[in-house]
Amino acid sequence: LRFRLKLAAALLSFLCSYSAVAQSNTIPPDRLNKYSDLAVQWLQEYLRVDTTNPPGNEAQAAAFFKKILDEEGIENQVFEFDPAHHRANILARLHGSGAKRPLILLNHMDVVTSDASRWAVPPFSGQILNGAIYGRGAQDMKAEGLAQLVVMVMLKREKIALDRDVIFLGTSDEEVDGSGTDWVITNKRDLLGDPEYLLTEGGYNLLEKNKVKYVALDVAEKATFWLRVKARGKPGHGSEPLVDSAPDRLVRALAKIINYQSELKLTPVVEEYLRVMAPYQTPERARIYRNIRALIKDPAFRAHLKSDELNPKLRNTISLTRLSGSPQTNVIPGEATANLDVRLLPGEDPQVFLAELNRLIADSNVTIEPESPIKDFRIANSSPTDSELYGVIRKVAGKYFPGTPVVPSLTSGYTENQRYRSLGIVSYGFSPYAATEEESTTEHGDNERIRVEEVRRGPRILYDVVVGISAAH
Ligand SMILES: [Zn+2]
Question: What is the reported pTM?
Fold first, then answer.
């Protein structure tokens, strides 16, 4: 009896997990194709909406979404928080039973600037060329926003009963100041309720030789902490060297900084990333990935690490990027400066790091200051990888890309995940699309595009994830 009960329980849990990933299979093929057709048509239209930021003009994008949401009978509201500059956010909602806390599908509607003279087709044409849809935002992140819209439409038309509210949130100004999300968090947090999960841009699914090599979920980021180093000294004539000139002091301080070995720290995200990726490495690399805990204490490994691609994942990093002194070769300036691009690991306190650098330099004529007020610094954060949503994404990825590892990643770039994680929401960067390395570099570059077949499939993948985490069983 005991054995049978166990077997029944195992079978039941298998069926439950199976039904959670099989959802789009239950939609008849002709209807699924219709959704894919809509995704292609709508993405072309959406890419024609010019939301270049600056200035943004995202109200046009909000109007584009609103028209479709209204036609589909999906509750939505546009918030023109800066009407003079046509800046708006849009929030749409499908109601669940309330048994679980909401899921937010977040997308920013603005795009970066583009130089049309360098493109094969105009950046706001939405034209299809050689099987790909071209347009500024095709990778970052209008195609993903569009997939989120199609998923809302699919949930509505398929009459999916939900355990939680599914909220579609389109924001302005992610690429410049983040004023859209600032406005939502300051003024409309009550409308979000108490969300459990959020999905937005940031993940990356690398396509190599027609196979998806990995599905990477952004679960953490590093925080930017830009510093200015300033040295002071007596000015003078270049013909009479001064031993303690500002440039000499600066160079001595910078020598200490570039030789500095910041502490190695193994965060849980990076440890899991290395564990999951180890089997896909060469034997020598796999040994490093598997033994990282011991290796970070090994002086030989530490010495070599600075030139290894794993370096930024394991420590706070410093890049010396700008230098300035005298405008004239024969003038010893009274002041010389350098700028450092510092990236801090999740949880790191900028004050502590700054104090560490000051101790290292130990020169009262050399100061280090943040480029922007330290009160504006946002501590990098992370979301756990043992959540129900992470498990659902892994199952869905297994259905579409069998045998492909799902890995958590620590990004060095900024996404809005940072803002929403700090509200206690488990937030992931997840893309329903795969891209070759070349395609992904068109993000912020020329000829930004996405293959039509990805646009047709992406919404199904995202639909399966959203149904898996939100549908009532
Ligand atoms: Zn983006």
Answer: 0.88
